[in-house]
Write a structure and sequence with these properties.
- There is one protein chain.
- The protein is α+β, with helices and mostly antiparallel strands.
- Strands 4-1-3-2-5 form a five-stranded antiparallel beta sheet, with helices on both faces.
- The protein is globular, with a radius of gyration of 17 Å.
């Protein structure tokens, strides 16, 4: 039996739809969902080199946030409660609202979009949004390539958010399913 083409448009589209259903199930179970956008300073090199640096930055942001949400993230009591981020590279598309020229020029507009899910049991007092507003200096500072980090709460239309956030994965076979960055790294931690 031949292996399915995991990078066909149809397969990429069905994976994105499956992620949308997964996000909706988690949010129905009480998890808080946010669209997360990360934009970066100029990163020299090829698209692949830029993507590696952007992925490392996303991992750094995740690790920093994790220690704010859980005193001991690897403790058995936190199993299944760690934040889940499913992100992918994205390029800007033509819209009614105009982008700043500087946003489109830097890295040819390449940035990351993702969905971030947060379990309601965590040590953080206040909202995730407030945490980022008050502590942005922990995530964005001179020595790192991250330029902007923005969160928007997902209230409804989860499937639309997944389609929007992962449109470059869906449309560009060169990035394809390998473009997804899923945190935490092991599926057992995501349950």
């Amino acid at each position: 039996m031949p292996m399915p083409d995991t990078n066909s448009y149809t397969t990429r589209k069905s994976y994105i739809e499956a992620w949308g259903r997964y996000f909706e199930e988690k949010m129905d179970a009480g998890w808080e969902g946010h669209l997360i956008t990360l934009m970066f300073k100029h990163i020299p090199g090829s698209e692949a080199a830029k993507l590696r640096v952007m992925e490392w930055e996303l991992e750094r942001v995740y690790a920093t946030l994790l220690t704010r949400l859980f005193r001991r993230p690897n403790a058995p009591r936190n199993y299944g409660k760690l934040p889940i981020i499913v992100a992918a590279p994205d390029y800007p598309v033509a819209k009614r609202e105009k982008h700043l020229l500087s946003e489109v020029r830097v890295n040819d507009g390449l940035h990351f979009h993702g969905v971030a899910l947060f379990h309601p049991e965590r040590r953080l007092v206040g909202s995730i949004h407030d945490h980022f507003d008050e502590n942005l200096h922990l995530y964005i500072h001179g020595e790192h390539p991250l330029l902007q980090l923005h969160l928007t709460r997902i209230e409804n239309r989860t499937s639309y958010v997944a389609d929007y956030g992962y449109k470059t994965v869906q449309r560009r076979a060169a990035i394809g399913l390998d473009g997804f960055v899923i945190l935490p790294r092991t599926s057992g931690e995501m349950r």
